[in-house]
Amino acid sequence: MVSSALAATLSRRDVHYGWVVAGVTFLTMLVTAGAMGAPGVFMVPLQKEFGWNAADISSALAVRFALFGLMGPFAAAFMNHFGVRRVMVVALTVVISGLLLSIFMNQLWQLVMLWGVVVGLGTGLTAMVLGATVATRWFSARRGLVVGMLSASSATGQLVFLPALAALTEAHGWRFSLAFVCCALGLALVVVALLMRNRPADIGLEPYGAKEATPAPAARQSLSQMLLSPLKILREVSGSRAFWVLFATFFICGASTNGLIQTHFISLCGDYGIVPVAAAGVLATMGIFDFFGTIGSGWLSDRFDNRKLLFWYYGLRGLSLIYLPHSNFSMTGLSVFALFYGLDWIATVPPTVKLIADRFGPERANVVFGWVFAGHQLGAASAAFGGGWSRTVLYSYLPAYFTAGALCIGAALIIMTLARPGQAGASPRPAAA
Predict the structure, then answer these.
(1) Could you tell me if residue 134 is inside a domain?
(2) Residue range(s) defining the domain that contains residue 27
(3) Are 57 and 213 in contact (CB under 8 A)?
């Protein structure tokens, strides 16, 4: 295999193959997230072509967000059972198929089925759980940094594609832009097939920075055990207050990022006379700031109290959302918003993953994070639908933005009620099955 030859070459140069795996994962999450963010550009063209209103389109996107999140814990189980590489190949194939078929859609139910169900299931297999799985399997040292890098790829991919997609849509229509997204996904599919491996042991390595031999993975479960294992783990951790604190704060995280900004920001700017290309440029600026902010968050999460980091992230995000309606939607005001909001777009992920691993153990971290991430996407689904409802019924997106800002302030306060690991009141790890 190409990966084995490359691993041997890198080993002679004292470079660990885990960095190649992280790079492949980075690319996959980047282009998949770009596919997730694309409908934000297509919302207005779809309204004009088919006569669907914002609430109609938002309902399909809400289905996608919900399935994207609910697939998380099962995606972790699939990766444990079938292998990360195989799951990534299937996921990319499903997403490409759903997007290509949607080029020919002309009915609302087709939008819900293709962009909601098919794309939701496919992207759910390569969600944040993929990054958490790769980081915990391939890295013993620098794990927080790797989680930050992979989280940044997901958030940045949702934003940096948007200016190009907006320009392509304006010049050639939304179908041409969708074909461009499919080409990017196809490139990622080829790279995954050639270079991705499931575990360091597959090529005779230990995780990067490991100081002792890594235990062999548990015996492979039957298919029924594999499908039930996420539910079993959910039952075990559902008695932990720490789990519900993290679930609730991540619900708010999703409502204030993917569901609101990613889905409705371009349409909101359109209400104030800002053309889609310019609004997408503001989102791309957020993506650039987010890239550095999330990687920095990974570095900080290895060194500081993760609860305090989340307090500042949620608090500053809430203040920036409350500020946005007062920015007068000038380019100066929007640039200030892009700076402060972008720096912590998804900087919440590395501290959240670290808190989960500390409380529930690294061997279950990806499944537990999958359930917490399900909360994130349920929040995103609520905000995607709620924002569209606000625009359709109240004729303004602003109530949704004020609500999201207030929720973020609440999340900042809630996370500080979580005890430090090892303190009295900290949640113990569930016993191994």
Answers:
(1) yes
(2) 2-202+229-415
(3) no
Burial of 326 (0-12, 13-18, 19+ CB in 10 A): exposed
Q: Is the residue at 12 inside a domain?
A: yes
Query: Alpha helices of 140-173 — where are they, by DSSP H?
Result: 143-172
User: What CATH number is attached to the domain comprising 46?
Assistant: 1.20.1250.20
Please enumerate in sequence order all residues whose Cβ is within 8 A of that of 257, keeping only pairs 6 or more positions apart, or say none: 155, 345, 346, 380
Using one digit for the tens of pLDDT, what is the confidence trace for 128-180? 778 878 888 888 777 777 877 787 776 666 666 777 787 888 888 888 988 99
Is 269 inside any structural domain? yes
Q: Measuring CA to CA, which residue among 180, 185, 182 is closest to residue 164?
A: 180
Asked whether 30 and 37 are in contact (CB, 8 A), the reply is no
Residue 403: count of CB within 10 angstroms of its CB: 18
Q: Which amino acid is at 132?
A: A
| Coil/strand/helix, residue 181 | helix
Q: What values do phi and psi take at 139, rounded to 5?
A: -135, 125
C-alpha torsion angle, residues 272, 277, 283, 284 (rounded to 10): -160
pLDDT, tens digit, 9 for 90 and up, residues 75-123: 877 887 788 899 999 999 999 999 999 888 888 888 889 888 898 888 8
DSSP per residue over 116-135, as a string? IIIHHHHHHTTSHHHHHHHH
Q: For 194-250, how does the pLDDT look when each residue is reduced to its tens digit (9 = 90+)?
A: 999 888 888 888 888 877 655 555 556 666 777 787 888 888 888 889 899 999 999
Please give the Cα distance from 159 to 232 (Å, whole number): 36
Answer whether residue 431 is part of any domain: no
| pTM metric for this prediction | 0.70
Q: 134: closest CA among 67, 191, 197? A: 197
Domain count, the chain: 1
